[in-house]
Every structure is written in structure tokens, then in C-alpha cells.
Amino acid sequence: MLTISLTHYVVLSALLFSIGLFGVFTKRNAVAVLICIELMLNAVNINLVAFSKYITPTDFTGQIFSIFVITVAAAEVGVGLAIIIAIYRNRLNVDLDNFDWLKW
Amino acid sequence: METSIYSVAAFYGLAATILGAATLVVFMRNIMHSVLFLAVAFIAMAGLFLLLDADFIAAVQVLVYAGAVCIMVVFGIMVIQRTEMKETNLFNRQVMAGAGLTALTVAFGAIFAGRTAWVDMVAADAVPENTVQAIGELLLSKYVIPFEVAALLLLVALVGAIVLARDEEVETSADN
Fold first, then answer.
1. Does residue A101 lie within any of the structural domains?
2. For the whole model, what pTM was predicted?
């Protein structure tokens, strides 16, 4: 049966989210973790826009919500990179395995 | 329901591009290549948004993600990685634990998704032709407070990023 339904988009979004989650858990470079978080946020956006089309097509709720997600993600990347650069200046690398000051 | 053969083929092509590029983002050993594949995934996602009748989101996706975010990350990497780029994006020692946690999350998501009656919720209406005008009106009427708060958030993030990333030595050299 050749139709694309809401389920297809939800499955795609779940797979993309899990790829991003795996990257967040396992990458060593702080910038790589940041871009994996971007992948996860984009998976959420796909979900929101798909729900907007299939469930509330005339209200645009999901589309407006995804605009706010994009805004917050852009702010997050800016501040996150600034923090990583500040850490680099102090420690001269961005390897997350070395950032264990809070480890008990 | 999309039934046209072109939209079905477009969905599967874009989905394969997105998932392949996202996998390469995670598994590339050079972080610069990771960011390049991230841009590919973002642009494919813009195509997916066009397929979902969300023209404005697709344009914003290309402008903000493929344009601004990717370039910003590339600049960040240029500042941070002073030595060569090879082997800059390796896995840590928790690959097995990370894979297990991810599998657990996927399993929980699948359980809850399986218990949701997706088919009952699908509306019969179609998305209107002009999404940009409708979104603009909604943003400045019903969603005006979140819109202003988002503007404030961007301002705070801009100032905060400048303050965090500013080199302290610049201040002393500016006095000369």
C-alpha cells in the first residue's frame, strides 16, 4: 500500500531522535554533542509539523510551535558555542571526558 | 493521506537522506565532515517540510539551520581545533551504555506510540494554500506574547554569547 500517513513521519522522527540521543551519549567532543542535540530538536520539529498537517491542519499550532523551537535552538547553539569557547580558553581542549570537576 | 506516487517517492528519498546523513554525523571521525552531513540533513528536512505543506518552516529551516547554525558551528570548530582535524570526533568509553539507553528510550517510545490511536485523530481538512499569511497573523495576534518573549530570549542569548566568548585580553589592548 503506497500511502504516506502520520505514522511514517512519527517513525522517521523517532529514528532521527534516537540517532541524536545516541550521539549525545557517546560523543567525546563538546561540539559534536551540540550538533547531536540539534538533530534531536529537528526530529521534534518534524513531529510537530507532521501533527500540524494531519491533526490540526487549519490551526497551525504545530508550525508555530516549531518556529519557537527553531528560535530557541538558534539561541542555544549561540550560547552553547560561547560556553565551549570559554572552556577551551581555560583548559585548551573540548574533550568532555576531561570535564569532571563535578564528579564525586 | 498522501497518495501521489511522487510524494511517496519524495518521502522515502528524503527520509533515507535524513537518516543516512544523521548516522554519518554521529559516526564520522572528523568533526568538519560531521557538520557538512548535518547541513545535508537540515536541507533534506526542509524538503520534508515542503512535503508537509509547511512552506514557511521550510524556508526558516534553510535560513536558520542550514545557513546560520551550521556556519556558526563551523566557526566554533575553527576557533577550538587548533591542530589537525583528523580524529577530532571520536566516541567515548560509554558506547555500549549509550546504545543500551537509546534502545530503552526507543522501546518506551514504541510502547507509548503503539498505545495511541493515531488514526482516530487525523482530521479530514487540508492545509490552506497560504500558510505564511496565516502564520504571520497568528504570530501577531494569538501568539504575540510568546513571540515577544522569543525576541527577548534572542537578545539575551546574543548578549550572553558575546559576554561568554569575549577574550579578556581584548579589553586591556583596547586601552592602548
1. no
2. 0.88
Question: A1 in a domain, yes or no?
Answer: no
Please give the tally of structural domains in chain A.
1
Q: Within a domain: residue B12? A: yes
Chain A residues whose CB is inside 8 A of the B127 CB are: 53, 57-58
Q: Is some CB atom of chain B closer than 8 A to the CB atom of A98?
A: no
Q: Residue B41 burial by CB count (10 A; 0-12/13-18/19+): exposed, middle or buried?
A: buried
| Distance from the A45 Cα atom to the nearest Cα atom in chain B, whole angstroms | 9
Q: What is the pLDDT of residue B14?
A: 93
- Whether residue A46 lies inside any domain: the answer is yes
Domain that holds residue A75: 6-96
Percent of chain B with pLDDT over 70: 91
All three cell numbers of A104, joined, read 564525586
Scan for cell 537518516, then name that residue.
B19
Higher pLDDT, B82 or A95: A95
Q: Which of residues 27-66 of A touch B (CB under 8 A)?
A: 27-29, 31-32, 34-36, 38-39, 42, 45-46, 49-50, 52-58, 60, 63-64, 66
Interface TM-score (ipTM) > 0.85: yes
- Mark residue B87 as left, alpha or beta (left: phi above 0; alpha: psi -120 to 50; beta: remaining): left
Tell me the three state secondary structure of residue A4: strand
Asked if B76 and A84 come within 8 Å (Cβ–Cβ), the reply is: yes
**Residue A54 and residue B122: Cβ atoms within 8 Å?**
yes
Range of the domain at B156: 129-176
Query: pLDDT tens across B6-39, in order?
Result: 888 999 999 999 999 999 999 888 888 999 999 9
Element (DSSP H or E) covering residue B171 = helix B168-175
Among A52-66, B40-54, B81-95, B131-145, the least confident range? B81-95
* Chain B residues inside the 8 Å CB shell of A26: 26, 91-92, 94-95, 98-99
